Amino acid sequence: MARRPSVFVRPLSMDEGRKLARITRTAKNPVRMRRAIVVLMSAQGQTVRDITSLLQVSDDYVRDVIHAFNERGFDALNPKPGGGRPKKIGEQLREWICLIARTSPTNWGITAFSTWSLAKLRDHLLDEGIVAELSRETLRRILHAGGVSWQTTTTWKASTDPDFIPKMRRVLGLYDHPPDDGRVVCVDEFGPLNLLPRKGKAWRPRRKPRRQRATYTRTAGVMHMLAALDLATGKMFYRIRDRKRWIEFLDLLKALRARWPAEKLYLICDNFSPHRHARVREWCAANEVELVFLPTYGSWLNWIEAEFAALRYFALNGTDHRSHDEQNAAIAAYVRWRNARAQPKVNFAADSPIRTWTSYPVKAA
Fold it and tell me: What residue ranges are annotated as transmembrane (predicted)?
């Protein structure tokens, strides 16, 4: 009987060879390691007979591993699950259990409590005859496999603005297509700026966090930051004041007007009462400044909000400033660093579902 022709693994790239070598050194599963060794030896030119004599396996095993790797790649190295005992609870019943877990006990006439625990849900399933026997651990695994997890209830605040969609589209239109006759600027207030130890994160030796004082008194009052984000350059301009009335807001607008005297300004702002003050509106109308108000509960549409989040994270979190001068200096240093690296702001929420809204959603997603 003629000897069966030897088979070899397909040509491997350098990356595939390195990956195979790494698997042969680090794989914890012996089946995966042995298969990787077979493929690596074949890739190095060793015949099936050479591999079988070195690994003490059969010819058919070596050939099957090589053929499988040629067809499926690295997936062929993974052992197939044994399957274990057949499941006592079928897939349809498991889906039904997950569906019940997502309901409230009150939906089943149970008024004594408003949420399920594993024990209460298990007792309910047994009492209703949905399952004959079920342990809490098995129930936990069924819910985990079905993508049902224990989560905190969240809230959302719906906008009552009847013009939400038109206002949102007006703002997005200015972001997407800045007018040729002017400049789009986002304005808002940040604060209050208190003097207190702030939690933050830092690289530290394991189990040796940076410590902050836990007791403090606030005797220096608070301050407020009024800021503007120029979308054309990506730079941020600001001033820090004791208060944030319409007077301080109007001073900021006058500073912006002086910075760009020859351009019309389109100012994106929220519905904070100083922004809508009659004196502010009167001045804007006389000085080529258009106030573009966000829809109510739509502050996330203001591009400057993300800049405030970064300012808080990098300049304030983890600090314990003892004076406003010290804290203001830290903010100034961050803004200088940021402006030196600023880029024009484009592509606001380009893939967001809000781009397809034709009406305000009636409930949270």
Answer: none
